[in-house]
Automatic annotation (TrEMBL):
Residues 1-22 have a biased composition (Basic residues). It holds the Pfam family STAS. GO terms for molecular function: anti-sigma factor antagonist activity. Belongs to the anti-sigma-factor antagonist family. InterPro entries: Anti-sigma_ant, STAS_dom, STAS_dom_sf. This is Anti-sigma factor antagonist. Residues 1-28 are annotated as: Disordered.
Amino acid sequence: MGAFTRRKGRGWGKLGRRHFRHPKDPRMDETHYQAQNLRVVAQSGALYSVLATIGELDVASASIFGVALDQILLRPGTPRVILDVSQLTFCDSVGLGQLIRARKLIESRGGALALAGVRTNLSALLRITALDSRFPRHPSVEAAVVDLTFPLGGDAGSRRDPHMPSSGTA
């Protein structure tokens, strides 16, 4: 399978993308990207985006990850991106370069990037290359959402939703 995949009854789709609403959260748009050994699912919402990587992020699949990231960054506003790497089975130096590129692009736009579900192999790679302090890590996407959406600190009860009008009290 290459950058183009054949979908049953749909003809050739550019980069194997298919748009539909996420069944759990109707406010999230979801797009799929497929490479030889990697599938990237990009979910975009108003407050944050999630890039879920499934498979191997290596020299053969790094370009498809870059395409998915670039599509996320085309959205207006400050990018808050969560990379869900819980199903990432392998990452080589080219894949690591894509992660660094993602962090630099997002931070250059004033945004924030977090890794969710980091497995031991990627954790060891980040530690060996001294990049572990550059990527905030969270045990799950849900924990990363709380951190990126409400980065003020304190408990969840004291955090204010930026889309809710202020009550005028401090």
